Amino acid sequence: MNFEIKEEFYVDGQPIKLISGAVHYFRIAPTHWRQTLQNLQAMGCNCVETYVPWNLHEPEKGTFDFTGIADVTKFLDIAEELGLYIIVRPSPYICAEWDFGGLPAWLLTDPSMRIRSQHPGYLQAVKEYYQVLLPKLAPYQVTRGGNLLLVQVENEYGSYGEDKTYLKFLVAELQRYFDVPLVTSDGGWAEVLEAGTLPQEGILATANFGSDANENFKWLQNYQEKNGLKEPYMCMEFWDGWFNSWGKPIIRRDPQETAEEVRQVLKKGSINFYMFQGGTNFGFYNGCSDAGATNEPQITSYDYDAPLTEWGMPTEKYFAIQKVIQEEVPTAKTSKPVYPKTTYLGSYAVKESVSLFSVLEEISEPIINDYTLPMEKIGQNLGYTLYRSQLLNKRHIAKMKVVDGLDRVQFFMNQQLIATQYQAELGQEFSCDLTQEKNELSLLVENMGRNNYGPKLVADSQRKGIRSGVMEDIHYISDWEHYPLELRPEQLAKIDFTKETIAKTPSFYKIELLLEEVGNTFLDCSTFGKGVVFVNGENMGRYWQEGPTHSLFIPDFFWKKGINEVIIFETEGVPIHEIHFSETPIMA
Question: Which residues does the UniProt record annotate as the domain Beta-galactosidase galactose-binding (predicted)?
Fold first, then answer.
């Protein structure tokens, strides 16, 4: 197969319109990949696009993971088996409403770090990551008998910087492994196209937008004319829905309006639906939106109001878009989609529970320092950190506050909750009483997700935990123990559920399920407070009473026939006596 870019895209000498859909393998269970891609084809698409999240594949410096949900080559194998063309976006930064835009948090251990720049430590880290990742992707190129047509250099870089030297570095690194065309994707207006593109390097520029194709492609036309180019128009991200944040209503987009906007794109050029199926932010990988003075962490469901739901169900929007594709691209092949199955797994009593304070020293080894350290400085990337110090003498403290803490802090004195602070409250002074001669001050700090887009992406604002300290009156409190709580399987395995349950404290709850068959299901979290759920040691994501969702999707991939273990870490002191599953999601 031969692929060329002239005034149009050409495959084996024939002009072709790329009709693509974004599918993030890392947000969808591997047992669902084939069905998702089959439904992509059934809607009329001939191509699949995916990001590659650096922080998932290199969670620790020099430690790589390409197994399970991170098995990108298995995902690409299925796409090729089905005959889909492939677009891969392995740029170091992906945005994607993903923690730190896909950048690994261990970059933040360098106090001078400047991401997406010429910073030597950043460039070296990218180079070393690419040396492992790109040889896995290169065999899929159309020039080597595969279906990979396009590879992205950087992601919406014109919305962040204008460093052409950095972009050229990425081009050079990619061209060590790829000889298929490279692309950039930016917003559809002059300033970002100017800042984020490399026309003199022969890099195809594409635009991202969700409406008004004529206006956005006009900017792309102006860009091409200015640089003496005649290239196909492509919307690399057609935003057919939107993501959601905690405490806000679910965002919906009218199916018919969406489909008519798709029609306008197809009349002018090629399209990549962002998203085709959104999936789930498993683990602690959700991103966070910059809301100015505050931040808005995204919810666990990445449903995105896409043509397929979070669990893969075709929607009204799916069929509306399919109809438009049939009308505008008569050569597109469409068919009936495949429907996923969900199941009710029953209700189960919680028989074991234990307070975090009872098992803290067993599951986490403290890092001791005279002042508080941010999460990254203690070798932790995600999750929670518990800070602990001792205060002497019975007395009244008129003023206490945390300085420069992120993101949500619960204050405990002698294992009793005295304050919770988040967003605008964080850093406010409060008073408390010391009732013993020696008092234990504990602060449970939750990293709720790093920014994935905007000016706060710079390293200084991305470090989590208590970055400056905790003050009594006008002085900083000294002598701290730091307990990392990333809650990986090996840490969960150390929890001793025979120890004390302390009411109204952060606690672990354990349930065992005997399953004769596995299935896709939803865990009802509507009576819980705030926390995370683990199935057989794997983190299913966060829940929170704030909504707008009150359940967690748990695919068949994470269950097994026989005994299954569910562990809930509930931070708000809400007692959990039983759990219930559902065939459908539970919304606010």
Answer: 506-564
